[in-house]
Design brief:
single chain, about 900 residues, alpha/beta, Rossmann fold, Luciferase, domain 3, 8-stranded mixed beta sheet, ligase, AB_hydrolase_fold, ANL_N_sf, medium-chain fatty acid-CoA ligase activity
Length: about 900
């Protein structure tokens, strides 16, 4: 044993000690030799008094080396904690006992060790894999010393209805077990291969060091053999005792998870959350089983410790409530309006004079109305389905993933779930197969309501949740898709009385929905809304845009289709692929408008581009239908003024608005075409202080407040003082009643977004002008850090897109932070055949255009098509372009960006 040879380990931490054993696996009077990593002596030598002890327990087949990243920060004078990382008996560099130690023995062994160490609290346990179960078993047995628990990828319960993970089943197979876990080092190598990215050679060698030779690997094999596969296993009772004991464990808890884990998947995380609902949870997307190797876990652990030090869990901790924004520090925060459930106006419409009129309309591909429901029919179907879902097992708090295209079925299912108190999970196919699968698995729904295609994906990709089909399926198809029932079967007339009890039962501050972001700036994030926040969103839209009972809404964007009934507005989705907005044609838009005599249209910029491109297909009836539109909204990406001008010709009577917002707060600001032109004119004339360099998105919507955290030269916005001064660029902050409650199972991300009490940090960069209007300059993550300056992209992109031969432009950085070269990537019109350096004439015009926005371009590249997000077909992946541009400018083959 040579501690100096272990990368990342201070030799001072390594120590051995003799511990009297009280385990039933040993003879009385037996003393066992343990190896641990312990920074206690180092703290003492530095004169530091630790706030407590982290008791870290590894799983199989790792050892205390797994926790090395916690030991160094634990010795920091800023937050001293004693960190004791143990090598369990028969593992690591601890004694090979020659006895088979069961789960109960190992929990007892850990107690023997802590007694020998004299740990008397406060102690926070940290566990991984089967070490997670053992650490939690110790925690339950030593609650008088316990200050908190941290768990990483582990499991405390194996449902009798499902098999243990395939990798463990294989390791347990009689033909494989001895050879795979003891005779050879296969089990170790397979486990180490689960690291993302792969372990460095010296790290891998350190993990292998204690297990050289079969005689050193008996504990590895015994650990596997001790997995309780059923209730007859000798360790089943001990595991069940830990699992049930957690339900009453009233201490702070932190769960750090790697979802890319073939052993302990998100279903085990969901089980743990159910037992410790007050836990702070963060899923590191892309990380796997060895999450402590894949990601920095020390930072969140010590941040969590700092937040928990010296305090017992609060009522909010123990109720499962997520971290929320504290508006008490903001005396100007808008008052919360009286709560009315999201379906309040829907019910009023059903009971009023409009009850027999259309509420929801579906369009057929041929331009006719395929299905429709009146307000009375819609309300009745919602109540009937709520009763049916309740009978099928959907309860208050159940998560229900809705994978149904906008229309009658989705509207009924959404409002039925909300009235039951279930949490709807909305992750649309616009995320792409991989993105959608990540989102669904991360949300771990209890039920999936979907069309055939969605249920087939659920079956093929292993999505969690009991399955309910939209329509009634033939018996063979039903079995193949695993569908238990259908919406048609659950929505039976005459069941309304059973659902009616839920009509006014919404808890305003209970979770209502998890809506996923577009994934255009990284993996899609689940955004959790309460019933109060959804209702506030409805009220904000109604007050800002005047959409209310009597409005007729064409929704080319799914969220607005679902919001229509809540506003009391008749709603219809055009015949289009809602997961690809650019499929909306002028004819389809006009057909939908004519079907409901539309007064309001909502469509993304990509959809409007195609509407303008296909306007020649409009007939006289279509032109007349569009001429009756009074309000057109477009959001999701910047909308150029020239595009709006062309759209105005199609809807001559409409007021055109481009609200700015995000999944976390929709909407935030609003501006009309006339106001855009006014701001542009003032900027061009040089009469507006602080204007230009970005997209003017107007002023805050009803009930919202905005501020800025100034941007530093290094491209960060690390300040803590919000400002509203004109011309100061920085990260945009928003405070409003309809801002999201939290990010779902992303505790670290939520802390970052809510780091300033009362404010949501949007991650967008912008500034105010002298008239109080907001100008958006891009994403904070996309700021280019050129020498001596931080360059925001949108202003230059807008200037470049004014060129006749440029359709879309993106500005990105190449090179090390602080010395980046500014590169423009343009999608030409007509499209260039191959991607690569732009022609000299195009390059010169792009550089000249960017200079008008104060940006000097170092290189210009051209692409046939920009890499955009699937949902909006408009948000450009600048990070991806940066990697591609780096390769091209280094002389590599351009390929496809």
């Amino acid at each position: 044993m040579v501690a100096a040879a272990w990368p990342g380990v201070d030799p001072q931490w390594s120590r051995e000690l003799a511990v009297p054993s009280t385990s039933g696996a040993d003879e009385p009077g037996t003393v066992r030799n343990w190896h641990i990593l312990d920074n206690g002596a180092q703290l003492e030598a530095r004169g530091l008094t630790p706030a407590g002890t982290l008791l870290c327990v590894h799983g199989n087949p790792t050892w205390s080396y797994l926790w090395r990243t916690l030991l160094a920060p634990g010795s920091d004078p800023a937050h001293p904690w004693r960190v004791v990382a143990v090598d369990q008996l028969d593992m690591g560099f601890s004694e090979r006992t020659g006895t088979f130690r069961r789960l109960a023995d190992r929990i007892n062994d850990l107690g023997d060790l802590t007694t020998a160490l004299g740990l008397d609290g406060p102690v926070v346990t940290v566990g991984h894999d089967w070490g997670g179960v053992i650490s939690l078993g110790w925690a339950l047995a030593h609650q008088d010393q316990l200050a908190g628990v941290v768990v990483t990828n582990t499991a405390v319960h194996q449902p009798s209805t499902s098999k243990i993970p395939p990798a463990l089943r294989l390791a347990l197979h009689p033909a494989v077990h001895q050879w795979g876990t003891v005779t050879s080092d296969a089990f170790l190598r397979v486990t180490h291969s689960l690291a993302h990215p792969p372990l460095a050679a010296d790290i891998h060698a350190a993990y292998m060091a204690p297990y050289r030779g079969a005689s050193r690997r008996s504990g590895v094999g015994n650990f596997v053999a001790d997995i309780p596969v059923d209730e007859f296993h000798p360790s089943f009772a001990a595991l069940a005792g830990v699992a049930e004991g957690l339900r009453g464990l009233a201490v702070p808890a932190l769960m750090l998870w790697g979802p890319r884990d073939p052993i302990f998947s998100d279903r085990y995380l969901k089980d743990l959350i159910g037992r410790l609902p007050h836990a702070k949870v963060h899923r590191f997307e892309g990380a796997g089983h060895l999450v402590a190797e894949d990601r920095d876990i020390a930072t969140p652990v010590f941040e969590w410790l700092a937040a928990r030090e010296g305090s017992a869990p609060t009522d909010a901790d123990l109720s499962g409530a997520a971290d929320v924004l504290d508006t008490s520090a903001n005396p100007a925060a808008p008052e919360t309006a009286e709560f009315r459930p999201l379906w309040d106006l829907l019910g009023e419409q059903a009971a009023g004079p409009a009850g027999t009129g259309s509420a929801v309309v579906e369009m057929a591909p041929d331009g006719t109305a395929a299905r429709s429901l009146s307000w009375q029919q819609l309300d009745q179907k919602i109540l009937d389905l709520a009763a049916g879902l309740e009978k099928a097992g959907v309860q208050r708090g159940s998560r229900v993933s809705l994978m149904v295209p906008p229309g009658v079925d989705l509207t009924v299912a959404l409002y039925a779930c909300l009235r039951l108190g279930a949490v709807v999970v909305v992750a649309d196919a616009g995320l792409g197969t991989k993105g959608l699968s990540r989102a669904v698995k991360g949300a771990t729904p209890d039920f999936i309501i979907g069309i055939d295609k969605a249920l087939a994906a659920a079956a093929a990709l292993g999505w969690p949740g009991r399955r309910i089909s939209v329509g009634t399926l033939p018996a063979a198809r039903r079995r193949l898709l695993g569908a238990e029932t259908s919406l048609a079967e659950l929505t039976r007339p005459g069941a309304a009385h059973a659902g009616a009890q839920h009509a006014d039962a919404a808890d305003p501050d209970a979770p209502a929905a998890v809506l996923f972001t577009s994934g255009s700036t990284g993996p899609a994030k689940g955004v959790l809304y309460t019933h109060r926040q959804l209702a506030a969103m409805r009220d904000t839209v109604a007050s800002t845009f005047g959409i209310r009972a009597g409005s007729n809404l064409v929704a080319g964007f799914a969220p607005f289709a679902l919001l229509g009934p809540a506003l009391g507005a008749v709603s219809v989705t055009p015949a289009m692929d809602v997961t690809a907005p650019r499929t909306l044609t002028a004819r389809a838009l006009a057909d939908a408008a004519r079907a409901i005599d539309a007064t309001v249209v909502f469509a993304s910029p990509a959809a409007l581009r195609n509407v303008v491109a296909t306007r020649e297909d409009l007939d006289e009836a279509g032109l007349k239908a569009l001429a009756r539109v009074e309000l057109l909204l477009s959001a999701g990406a910047p909308v150029p003024e020239p595009l709006l001008a062309e759209v105005q010709q199609l809807v001559p009577a409409a007021s055109l608005h481009t609200p700015y917002g995000m999944t976390e707060a929709l909407p935030v600001t609003d501006i009309s075409l006339e106001q855009i032109r006014e701001a542009d004119a003032e900027t061009a004339a040089g009469t507006l202080h602080g204007g230009g360099n970005g997209v003017c998105v107007g002023k805050p919507v009803h009930g919202a407040r905005l501020a800025i955290i100034p941007l530093s030269a290094d491209g960060t916005a690390s300040g803590t003082t919000p400002v509203t001064d004109a011309g100061v660029a920085g990260e945009i902050l928003v405070s409003a009643p309809h801002v999201k409650d939290s990010y779902d199972r992303l505790w670290l991300t939520q802390r970052e977004s809510a780091g300033l009490p009362g404010w949501h940090r949007t991650g967008d960069v912008g500034h105010f002008d002298a008239a109080g209007r907001l100008w958006v300059e891009g994403r904070l993550a996309h700021v280019v850090t050129a020498p001596g300056a931080a360059v925001t992209p949108v202003g230059a992109e807008q200037a470049i897109e004014r060129l006749d031969n440029v359709r879309l432009a993106a500005v990105t950085g190449v090179g090390p932070a602080g010395t980046q070269a500014v590169v423009a990537v343009v999608e030409t019109a007509p499209p260039t055949r191959t991607a690569g350096p732009a022609e000299p004439a195009l390059s010169a015009s792009v550089r000249a255009a960017a200079r008008t926005a104060g940006v000097r371009i170092s290189a210009v590249l051209a692409v046939p098509a920009q890499p955009t997000d699937i949902r909006h077909n408009a948000k450009i992946d600048r990070t991806r372009l940066s990697r591609w541009a780096t390769r091209v400018l280094a002389g590599g083959r351009p390929g496809k960006p």
